[in-house]
Amino acid sequence: MPLTPTVDPALRAIALAATLTCLGSTLALAQTTPSPAPASPAPASAAASEPTRTAAPRTKSADAASSTPNAAPATDKTLSTVVVTGSRISRIGSEGPSPVTVLKGEDLDRLGYRNVSDALSGLTQNTGFTQGEDFGNTFTPAANAISLRGLGPNHTLVLVNGRRVADYPSPYNGSVNFVNIANIPSALIDRIETLSGGASAIYGSDAIAGVVNIVLKRHVDGVTLNLRAGASQQGGGENARAQLTGGFEAGALSGVYGVELSGRQPIWSRQRDFMADTTLQGAAPSVVIGRRDASSGRYLAPTDGCDAGSGLFQGSTSAYSSRSGVYCGSGRTSPSFWTTQTGNRSVQAAGALTYALGNGLELFAEGQFGWAHTENNTRGPSWTSQAAGLGYFRNANTGLLETWTRRFSPEEIGDIDRYNRIWQDSTHNVVAGVRGDLTGTWTFELSASSAYYLNKTTTPRLLASVEQLLLGPRLGTEANGTAIYAADPARLFTPLTNAEFDSVLGKSRGRNNSWNQQVSASASGEWLKLPAGPLRAAVVAEAGTQGLTNVTDPRLGQGVFYNTTEGTNIRGTRDRFAVGAELNAPITRQLTATVAGRYDRYHFDGRNEGKTTYNAGLEFRPVDSLLLRAQHATSFRAPDMNYVFAPETRGYYSSSTDYYRCAQSGVPLAQCDFVNVSPGFNFVRTGGDLKSERGRSWGLGTVWQPTSSFDASLDLWKVRINDLVTDLDADQVLRNEADCRTGKQEATSPVCVDAISRVTRNPDNALVRPGEVTLVRVNPINAARESTWGFDLGARYSWTLQDWGRWTLDVKYTQVQDYRYQQSSGDRDYNQVGTTDFTDWRNKLNANLTWKVGAWTHTLAAQRNSKIPQADEEGYLPAYWNFNGSTQWQVSRRTSVSLTVNNLFNKIRKDSTSSWPYYPVGYYFPYGRQGWIELDHRF
């Protein structure tokens, strides 16, 4: 459903109807009526560049319609009718009151992106930090998300062909629902359009920060085979991809299809030297085998000086004398198992069929199907005696209260990947309907769609029998609940055989699924003739249902597995009904107004809740080469289904800081041993009665295009959310608790009473882990407000040099000027940007230079990300540059070969203030230089 002209004149009858898709999710869906020439590329600002602004002035918007770089600029007479992203109404050209960024499908490889999610994450508007498949220790390592304007992944609406898809079944960070962008294939992608800013009046709930629409191709000539293979220079990440795309026409029936097969090996942290051994960075070796006197807290010396276990962890295990005694340790415990990039295998398929009925009507069907297998590892198997109980036992052989600890090595378990976690995903998105002419100027569409996401998880776990394997049979229990064993220390210090480990290895399984089903009716066309042009209108009515289930293994917490708690099953559905309308009115030849309104009603959990939103925009052209635009919109978001239907959720944070113990230690936070400890504290989240979020956004901008070879834009934006649904900030709870316990805040104040009640600690005189946080209690709340504003800059310039071909420079820049968050209306209201409280990117810059000469096309792409706080929160990591490069050789009219290199200078971002793995996890990847070679052939 392209923004730009297509080649098939027979599709004229459905030009506008294709833009009005089910459930208010249409985003820049269009068909046009050009002459029978090759399909034109995106608007002028998209020519030979990466993400582009489609809101160029009217008389220049078709300058790139020619496929030849030296073509003469088109005039108004050649412009085709298209639909502007962010609107349901067909317009002339690509103008609109809100800026739109376009990334063409063919540019994904050219700009050095590894996949679709890599490209979306690289958008300058994506300033927010997100966890994903490359984060490692996360709830959703098989999925990726984006955070436009830093407002979180649940505030960006992601569409495929303008239609909603099913959410990822497991919540992001254990909290919010989102769309997974990690399994979107590039085989049939025509372009990716991003509208930043509130758009609920057009698309309904979720579109507070913006909308991402992934548009698949509607027409393909012939059959094309694409093969790609690559790897990382420093090892790991070997990958391969095969794509087959094609199209056909058989009388009234036509269609397109695409299939993509891909595979990727994981990258293990041990494959990167700076994190392959924690002792090389000055850290003490981790405990491999440890035996403590629980009463004194001191280690009891190994019976054989660790000789029996010296071959564990690649021969790195040896006796280590700590302040608490001697234990057997190694710096390779975590690096041996941790994957910094997941392994993945997937099969993706997509297709579309249309059948012309005549008289301007056609039947259509579209489908996307996917299967993915993802594996990762964040830590190897480990065991602590009586971990589910007191943490220690009475050793009848010694009379002591003892705590035994064991980390199992690759040599003991066999293949390292035996302890990988596995995610198996199956997805489908299908739609069918009819569309065509209502009158000479009005078109319609009736459609029904279904989206489904199934996620099966397999998690390796130690069986409860590991206790008996290492301690022997339980002899009894003391009056206070202490277990009694006649435990032989030689058993602890003797490595397990593969068969012994097999006897205590089990697997738990979970099943999560989500769905989204909907029907819609829509129409658009010219309503009235006004002096300055036609008044265009669009209307839509839609209804749908969505739901999710999270089913955990019933054996958890039942004594089958070692140290597990009972899982929580989640089930829920909600229904939605919506009606909306939009008007586009040319007030004068230079001034155009757009107004949209929409009413959405949700029914869930016994509640009926309705919201009305509106959108108003102006476009003013004092001269043909200059566009001034402004827009204001309201938006809303119904509470995430996970918040509504999860009565209680248990999990752990990726890292946590114990501010109270740091204060007790008397050392600065930067030197405290309890800062950013990973994995972090356990938490339990309980549900709550939540209101829908209410958002407002504003935009003010200009686009200047004096010639077809140059354009520039500046857009100011602001987004505000009231009643933000979010978790109570656990880090702030821990800060408050520390201040309250140390007397910085009045212990009897409501804040202190609440904070102290939420943090559970072991007693200071506990035999095991005295004073340690064992649980943080949080719950979702409606925070008072969150707001942010800033500006986007863009420029493109193309020129031709005699004998040196065509050159194009494209630059995008986003600056966050202000970010504020207030949990309660009485909290301090201040701009966090410029302080270490602001943990997202303050600014991002993308620039790429393309040189096309003869049969060769060369591209150099650069990205600059702003400084971010160090792990110790005492300073900043400076701004970071990354460069990608690609070269394509058009061997013949049908065949091309290309080479792409990601991270040309082989730079890896490190953070000397952090603990292992010593880099800013989630912000940057530790992969180093990666490269691919690609063959493309059209039959």
TrEMBL record:
Residues 32-79 are annotated as: Disordered. Transmembrane segments: none annotated. Residues 1-30 form the signal peptide. Pfam families: Plug, TonB_dep_Rec_b-barrel. GO terms for cellular component: cell outer membrane. SUPFAM superfamilies: Porins (SSF56935). Residues 42-76 have a biased composition (Low complexity). Gene3D superfamilies: TonB-dependent receptor, beta-barrel domain, TonB-dependent receptor, plug domain. Keywords: Cell outer membrane, Membrane, Receptor, Signal, TonB box, Transmembrane, Transmembrane beta strand, Transport. The keyword Transmembrane applies. It is found in: Cell outer membrane. Belongs to the TonB-dependent receptor family. This is TonB-dependent receptor. It comes from Roseateles depolymerans.
